[in-house]
Amino acid sequence: MDVNIFPNVGKDNGVATHVIIVKRHSRFRLVNQDTGGIVNVQAIGDSYKKIDVFTAHSYYADEQLTDYGKKANARLLRNAKQAKRVICVSKYVRDFLVSNGVDKWKTVVIENPVDIVYLDTIKPSKLNLPKTFTLFVGDKEVKRPGMFIELARSFPNDNFVAVGLPKGMNAPKNVTVLSKLSRPELLSVIRSCSIFVLLSKRESCPYALLEAMTMGKACIASRFAGQQEIIQNTKNGYTFLPDNLDNLCKAYTYAKDTPINGRWYVEKYHDARIQVPKIDSVYSPPKVSVITYVHCSKDNNRLPLLLEAIRSVQAQKFDSYEHVIVDDGSTIDLRGEILRLKDHHIKYYYKPNTGIIETTETFNLGFLRCQGEYCIILPSDDLHMTNTMGRLSSYLDAHRNVISVVSNYIDQRFKDGVLRKESKVIRNEGSIKNELLKTNSVNAVGCMFRRNALRYIEMPPDDTGFASDYDLWIKLSEVGPFVRIPDCLIKYRAFANATRFKTQKDMDYRRACIARIIARAKRRRGLR
Description:
This protein is α/β, with parallel strands linked by helices. The protein folds into three domains: 9-109, no CATH class; 116-273, Glycogen Phosphorylase B (Rossmann fold, 3-Layer(aba) Sandwich), CATH 3.40.50; 287-524, Spore Coat Polysaccharide Biosynthesis Protein SpsA, Chain A (Alpha-Beta Complex). The protein has helices at 14-23, 67-82, 91-99, 116-119, 145-154, 183-192, 207-214, 227-230, 245-257, 263-269, 272-283, 302-314, 334-339, 361-369, 388-398, 468-479, 504-524; strands spanning 29-34, 37-41, 51-56, 85-88, 107-109, 134-137, 160-163, 175-178, 195-198, 218-222, 238-240, 288-294, 321-328, 346-351, 374-377, 383-384, 404-415, 418-425, 430-431, 447-450, 482-494.
């Protein structure tokens, strides 16, 4: 990553920062820059009702609640409720959304990024300013310019500078009033000041405050809303009770006598080199796609097993994944059950029931719907272990020539819902390309492969039946190295009502499918 994360972003505001980040992700489209947020849809032609990511910057409150403010808030909430993911620049913004009906589980708080490298290049202002002064920025009443004037009057021997005071406001002689400045000019004035004051009652994640802290200025902010998430009184600055002039004067005196440099806080929590990758991760495709096929009914008791499988994925300390669940015509409300899990990683797809014996439609659909760099199948009655995704994906990361990697597993046999037998299944590690021509030695739940390898093969045809995974493994082994590692990373669970227990007719059909798969593989390789 370059040192300067986003070109010239230091000259722009927070919204512009997010716009620059969004434009880096070509599969997303910025469709509307709205009051309080940014709306993005995934592809041109999508309806605005299909919002992938919504970035919420602020909302209108208290004295801001004009008719326009109410309409803007309504628009903010509508977009946030429709979005799949909501980026909030502060907990203050998130709390507002959640208290107004937005699902907390789909929100993520990523505080505004600050381009410290750019700010370090800012030189002091060349304007005719006092040698030491306290700076205030804001031309709207919500910024509390009147309170700033009262502060200046309380300390007549000190110098103050105000950028953009409202017209008609009388300032005392110790206040230098500047007209509205360009962003580079404003940053130069911030570089020149001794103390920076933010007097507004409600802010979400104020950039000017963060920039002043980055430049090592003593900062004062009201003890409320998003600014109190940034300023920790006496640790990285000073706070005062909103609209309380006496309390503000005390904080100002402390800042003069004992100035506190809050740069460390910005470096730790707002550095663009840390925050931008967090924002990128929301837009970037997941590292791993977990694919689960399922058919749930009142009779097959599949739902509790599926929920166990999902929890085994959630329990891993690995966040860059999506869980694609293909519902093959369940006769219960599986969609409702999935929604109740409130997990943004899960992508649910329903299709009419076709089964898995005579068609590969369901099997292939899972791969058409996934977006991860790597894919792994998790049958609805099996389990991942504590580091399945992390271990397999890190192996593929470290071995760029390897197409597929499979682990060993723990075999569990159940009868009447009770575990009757458990054993570790350990097979030889290394390449298994030739081994696959003899038998399907790959347990699907423990195999991870590169999704882009699918472009080099024909997906399993219908006549491979429910041996379609075997057809996939053989073809992938022909694209590149297919290796086994010694780790046991999955629990393969066999239940009496599982799809892997079939009638004799089904098993005969499976053997015929396997024979066709092997025969075709030998022809492709020029073998008899």
